[in-house]
Write a structure and sequence with these properties.
elongated, single chain, six-stranded antiparallel beta sheet, 4 helices, two-stranded antiparallel ribbon, 22% strand
């Protein structure tokens, strides 16, 4: 009688491998189900609220308008809910005290001023008033567009202010023949910040002493102002001791010809302009021979 030998070791290995594979699949499935349940439970517990955020990058000292803002639903807690706004209309007309990036919530401490209607803040972002701090004031000057960079100046610009005034020479000094009554122009105030603009009126930040001088010059009508735009990166103070000009200085510096007086009936005959060179008559080509 013959007994057939069967090798069951290979079959056992396959059974163990299949069992391990099924166990891994079952464990992965359980982990996925538990993770999904936890995530859904966490999401269900997060509350969102309408928050005003920057719809685009808002530069510091810019007056905020409706196009700068939008409403998003954001999760808030006791910390992140402090100082946020749910209504964008409360921010329109206020000034950004710092640069606000697109998508950032607009917090109350990001604003330079809380007073609507003024549209500007005299103090710089983060600047405070102390016993030793400068006495800053806002003063307005009227400058036509042709003397204010074509009227293109905007709040936040830094400008230099030129003053043009008529210098009246006393008769005894005038008789000496050295000086004459004429207008004189010089750069007087440097690096002044434009806080606001309405038509041709510019609101500038100035120390109280400079604000007093500007107020006097405007009230007296003895001076006219011009504005020159400075690069934002240029914070240098120019030495103005050698600056300042008059009409006679410009004439002498650039050699402008002086008008002559000929007296009545003595004016020379006008110099005729040279006649243009006549162009040659066009040559008509001969007809081709038949």
């Amino acid at each position: 009688m013959e007994i057939e030998y069967q090798d069951t070791s290979r079959r056992g290995k396959w059974i163990v491998a299949v069992g391990l594979l099924l166990a891994l699949v079952a464990g992965g499935g359980a982990f996925f189900v538990v993770s999904q349940a936890q995530q859904q439970a966490g999401q269900a517990g997060v509350q969102t609220s309408p928050v005003v955020v920057a719809a685009r990058d808002i530069a510091g000292r810019k007056v905020i308008d409706a196009t700068d803002l939008e409403i998003r639903q954001l999760p808030l807690n006791e910390t992140t809910a402090q100082g946020v706004y749910a209504d964008g209309s409360k921010l329109i007309g206020l000034v950004a005290g710092m640069s606000i990036l697109k998508g950032q919530p607009v917090y109350a401490n990001m604003l330079a001023g809380q007073s609507q209607g003024t549209g500007f803040s005299i103090l710089a972002p983060g600047e405070t008033v102390s016993p030793d701090s400068p006495a800053w004031r806002a003063v307005s000057i009227t400058v036509p567009d042709d003397r204010a960079v074509g009227g293109l100046l905007q709040p936040g610009a830094s400008v230099d202010v030129f003053v043009t005034s008529t210098i009246t020479i006393p008769p005894d000094v005038l008789a000496a023949g050295k000086y004459l009554t004429d207008k004189s122009t010089k750069i007087v105030y440097q690096d002044m910040l434009v806080l606001a603009k309405t038509a041709t009126s510019y609101v500038l930040r100035a120390s109280i002493a400079v604000a007093e001088e500007i107020s006097h010059l405007q009230a007296s009508g003895a001076a006219a102002f011009s504005l020159a735009l400075r690069p934002q990166q240029d914070l240098r103070q120019v030495d103005t001791s050698a600056l300042g000009t008059t009409t006679t200085k410009i004439v002498a510096r650039y050699g402008l010809p002086l008008p002559e007086w000929y007296g009545p009936g003595k004016a020379p005959a006008p110099t005729p302009f040279p006649s243009p060179t006549p162009s040659a008559s066009p040559v008509v080509p001969a007809s081709p021979a038949p």
